[in-house]
Design brief:
Nucleotidyltransferase, domain 5; 9 helices; 35% helix; 9 strands; 2 domains; five-stranded mixed sheet; disordered C terminus; alpha/beta
Length: 307
């Protein structure tokens, strides 16, 4: 069974997913042939832990669970649930790699890799045309440039400021008593976007409270928030030099209102992978696979096997 979300290679235009991918997810293929090698990538983030299992040719499945502050427990849970779902055991995993804020707590991983390296690798295998990536994380956001193989060329971090990360979406959702997953749809219903005078999450929260008291519709407030955050993210990307194609990843990329704002600012489509918060886990799994075979064993690359 071939995955519909494997990659976009030469002559593989059907695999290219451009723009917001609502409701799309990685396939849960299950175990392959007996004796097949499997590779595990985990991304232990500050808010969410993710895991991806691949074999020599395709994605087998993925899983995510809240990190909950206990990174060791989250690392074990996200791995255990995925292996159980796929009918695999730890002994079936040839090599594992970990990334993310709590990667050091994934004791089963043979290596730990930076999240930007993993995002770059994962996105490059899905969309080889991408050269600029913005990662909207919970604690911070990052902009980075990659080459055609996903190698990191340049990067810039927003720093640990909630105003420039996905955390501000949580802050405002709480003030508006709205689920964070509802923000995107509400933003698209806005009649007139509210202008925010600050990029700081603390002051933005105060502004939101004031606008609510003035009777401003929440849709307009959310649209203004998306525009403000998209402007900060794009400014970060501009500082390293935007080269198309341009991809948005991380938890914030699941917000279609934010994606729309970023596209309006740039006046071109932004690529959003299916389950954009999973690309780092995918990249970690790909790197684990490459390192397993780096001593010269014969194996087809994911992209080669699709062409």
């Amino acid at each position: 069974m071939m995955s519909p979300w494997k990659w976009q290679g030469q002559g593989q235009e059907k695999g290219r997913v451009v723009g917001y991918n609502e409701g799309k997810s990685w396939p849960q293929v299950g175990p392959g042939e007996k004796g097949m090698a499997y590779f595990l990538g985990v991304d232990i983030g500050s808010a969410l832990s993710k895991a991806m299992v691949i074999d020599e040719e395709e994605i087998r499945g993925s899983n995510a669970c809240p990190s909950g502050g206990g990174f060791r427990a989250a690392a074990e849970r996200v791995k255990g649930e995925l292996l159980s779902k796929l009918g695999l055991s730890q002994g079936d995993i040839a090599r594992s790699a970990a990334t993310g804020y709590g990667s050091g707590q994934a004791s089963y991983a043979q290596e730990r890799i930076t999240d930007m390296t993993c995002h770059g690798r994962g996105v490059a295998h899905l969309f080889p045309s991408v050269r600029t990536i913005v990662d909207v994380g919970d604690l911070s956001s990052k902009a980075f440039r990659i080459d055609e193989r996903g190698n990191l060329l340049n990067f810039l971090n927003s720093g640990k400021c909630a105003g420039g990360s996905g955390r501000i979406l949580k802050v405002v959702a709480k003030v508006l008593q709205t689920g964070i997953e509802e923000l995107g749809a509400l933003s698209l219903e806005a009649g007139e976007r509210v202008e925010f005078s600050t990029g700081c999450a603390v002051f933005a929260e105060t502004e939101v409270i004031s606008r609510v008291a003035e009777g401003v519709p929440k849709e307009n407030i959310i649209a203004g928030l998306h525009w403000a955050l998209a402007s900060q993210l794009n400014s970060l990307a501009e500082r390293i030099g935007i080269e198309r194609d341009y991809a948005l990843v991380g938890g914030g990329a699941r917000d279609k209102g934010l994606v729309k704002a970023l596209e309006e600012i740039n006046r071109f489509a932004v690529i959003v992978p299916p389950e954009p918060h999973m690309t780092s886990a995918l990249g970690a799994a790909l790197i684990a696979r490459d390192h397993y075979y780096r001593n010269g064993d014969s194996v087809r690359s994911f992209r080669d096997s699709a062409e």
